[in-house]
Amino acid sequence: MLVGVPKEIKNNEFRVGLTPAAVREYVARGHQVIVETGAGLGIDAPDAAYVAAGATIAATAGEVFAKAGMIVKVKEPQPAEWAQLQPGQILFTYLHLAPDPDQARGLMASGVTAIAYETVTDAHGGLPLLAPMSEVAGRLSIQAAATALQKPNGGRGILLGGVPGVAPAKVVVIGGGVVGMHAARMAAGLGAEVTVLDRSVPRLRELDETFAGRVRTRYSTIDALEDEAVSADAVIGAVLIPGAAAPKLVTRAMLPKMKRGAVLVDVAIDQGGCFETSHATTHAEPTYVVDGVIHYCVANMPGAVPLTSSHALNHATLPFGLALAGEGLAALARDPHLRNGLNVHRGRITHRAVAEALGESFADPAGDIAA
What we know:
371 residues; alpha/beta; Rossmann fold; seven-stranded mixed sheet; 35% helix
């Protein structure tokens, strides 16, 4: 198969769908790879590195979209990109369709088969292609909170870890999954006072054992969440319902009760955000203020560290991408976990949670895939 890698065009997105090392793996298995010129510059991979790995270089994104049987990206296609997708083409990337009906309609109209990294599953019920970026975003969320808390940036002027004789900042993490665990690890490592809220008692037990008492755990009720948010210096929103829109857990009514200059970091913003006052921001303008509370809602946080992120993502996506390149849709029939990544096929929404979030009818693609 001819696999295409366009340059990412989302605001301040420096990651790349395939690294030169990944390209070499595709080529070694008999596939062709076409890469848009400059696609790898954000990870210090010039066109020459891709040529050395066996790829050909395209002068424009249009050439990549026109020729490739499968498009491998990082972020969801922008309007200029979904307009270039073709019927029968495979798109393999993050999509986050639940809060983005325009993109969903664009993909449906294109006739593309769109497979979303974030809904591919594994045998343990995990999300293996979302996990590496969740790890990065969880750790970055604490760096973002620490920066926003500095007085010149509008924050309270508190050092996350404090100093001897002065109390550290209080960090509250809503959600004990991959993002939440890595956020808690970073915050605790810097010396902050950390509390993790979650509705899974078994997960709270795991976190308690993992952190050996260095992190507080608390069952997430409305009362507990409000109590913790009001007293926090930084709140990390780390909730996830695969494929669905994130629930709004911190309401507008809570903000006036919070500390002035406190920070909300919404890592769930790709799925619509878990704070009622959240809206997506960019690395160019990452924060805004509502009722004296700073909101950091960058929708592509890992894009700030593209060298780390691109390699971590490629390590996770490579086996699935190779299967799609080698078998086409037959890979979906063979692997139910990869099939869970199928969000759009032949103009229909094929993931139940995505369909419910968008108010669209769900179409079971089993018959098409089997055929």
